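Data deposition worksheet. Section B asks for the primary sequence of the deposited chain exactly as it was used as input, without tags or linkers unless they were present during the calculation. Section C holds the resulting structure in token form. Section D is free text for depositor observations; keep each observation to a single sentence. Incomplete worksheets are returned to the depositor.
Section A, Depositor: J.P.
Section B:
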Amino acid sequence: MYPRFLTTVRSLAVALLVTSFANVQADDWVQLFNGKDLTGWTPKITGEKFGEDSRHTFRVENGVIKVAYDQYDDFKERFGHLFFEKPYSNYVLRIEYRFTGDQCKGGPGWATRNSGVMIHCQDPKTMTVGQDFPVSIEVQFLGGLGKGERSTLNLCTPGTHVVYKDKLHTQHCTTSTSKTYDGDQWVTAEVEVHGDNVIRHIVDGKTVIEYTKTQLDPKDKNVKNMPESARKELALKGGWLSLQAESHPIEFRKVEIKELKD
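Section C:
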């Protein structure tokens, strides 16, 4: 009986350790979207003040954040961003998204099945009423158009530059190596951020683009409109997060973050 007792004790101990480890790992992830409402999130729509969203572009329905255009007669370049309430510098961000339906009337052709998450954003309170995009690094989400290739988790740089392949990179948008995701399927996107050192875009567990030295573009008009204290240093080491609304309906069912101790 004694050996059997020891075996049972060992089994219980291992089970407890595994359970404890699993709980610690799960607790590392913080849910930024509670699945019920937009607590912690604030919209900024072009032409409206921070906090206003007169056409209810961003809403929560059936457990997802929806970007919807049923209250728009025409898009009229009213780009939207939904900001989380605090900035981050070192983290892994995980988002599950899918495109749905048809693009809003008047939306630009390039914005068909186009959205994204903006990282290293300027403080949204410093955006002007007419500003279309925050100064930030964009992790661009693109959906397939049913023909040809169209990668997702691309890099775009409104008011910013990066170092890519060991050179200062001033091109606005850069294509990743991801495959094409057609239809309304859910896609799991991850962004691994180490301040202004290394940033990786990851989909299906594969890094599809990587760059370093995120920095402000001092010649950009929106950068010039930022408070002097916010643009005194060009290195962009952190900032706010925002989900995009660029004229095509999209849903986000998970937005979670794990902070890193860099």
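Section D:
Confidence is low (pLDDT under 50) at residues 5-26.
Helices lie at 2-27, 221-224, 228-231.
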